[in-house]
Amino acid sequence: MDNDLPARTRATREVWLDAAYEVFVNDGIEAVKIMALARKLNLTRTGFYWHFTDLADLHDAIIDIWQSRNTGIILDRCAAPAQSLCGALFNLIDCWINTDLFDAPLDLAIRNWARGDDGLQQLVDTTDQNRLSAVTEVFERFGVKGESAHYRALTVILTQTGYYSMHISEPRWKRAIAGCHYVEVFAGTTPSPAEKAAFLDRHR
User: Which DSSP category does 29 fall into?
Assistant: First the structure.
C-alpha cells in the first residue's frame, strides 16, 4: 500500500462492512451505496476498492454474514447435545432470545431484499428449507416422526419468524418466560423443573 495515501483511506474491510450492515438493516439494500458509505465514514470512494471489487461484492459479503450469523447458529443449536426434546428446543430458543446469537433485524432485512431479487429469493428459500430440516431432525431425534415432526418444526420456525416480522418487542426475561411455554407447546410435554431452571438461568 502506498505510504503517501491519507490514513483515512486505509479503513479495514470490517469498517466498511459494519457501516454497510447498519445502513442495510435500517434503510434497506437500496441505501447501500459506495459514495453514501464513504460520506458516512468520512473516507474516500477509492478506499472502498482496497477491500471490495464492486458493490455486488459488498452485497455478497452482507449475505455471507447472514448465512453465518443466522442460519449457522440455528444449525449449530439444533445439533447441540440434549437429554430430551424439551432440552433440545431450549437450546434452539436460546438463539432467539439472546440477540448476540441470532440477528433478527438482519434476517428481516434479507427477506425484504429478496422480494425484489429472484436469485436471493432462491437462496432464502433453500436456506429456509435447511433450517426447517434441522429443526425437523431435532424432533425426529427424540422419536417424533413423519408429518408430526415436519409440522411441529414448521410451527417453531413460523413462530419465530412471526415475532420479528411483526416487530414484536419484549424484554429478554419476558421472552424467556414465554419460551418455557412455547417449548411445552412445541414438544407436547412439560419440561422438567431442572430444564426450565437451567434455561431461565441463561437469560437472567
Answer: G
Predicted TM-score (pTM) of this structure: 0.90
**Which helix (DSSP H) or strand (DSSP E) does residue 184 occupy?**
helix 172-187
Q: Report d(CA 74, CA 130) in Å as an integer.
A: 10
Enumerate the domain spans of the chain.
1-52, 62-201
At how many degrees (to 10) do helices 13-27 and 104-114 cross? 70
How far apart CA 181 and CA 189 sit, in angstroms, is 10
Architecture of the domain made up of 1-52: Orthogonal Bundle (1.10)
**C-alpha cell of residue 105:** 433485524
For 153, residues 6+ apart whose C-beta sits below 8 A from its C-beta are 132, 135, 136, 138, 139
User: How many CA atoms lie within 13 Å of 24's alpha carbon, on the beta-carbon side?
Assistant: 28
Q: At what angle do helices 13-27 and 34-41 cross, to 10 degrees?
A: 110
Q: Is residue 103 within 8 Å of 70, Cβ to Cβ?
A: yes
**What are 141-175's pLDDT values in tens digits?**
999 999 999 999 999 999 999 999 999 988 999 99
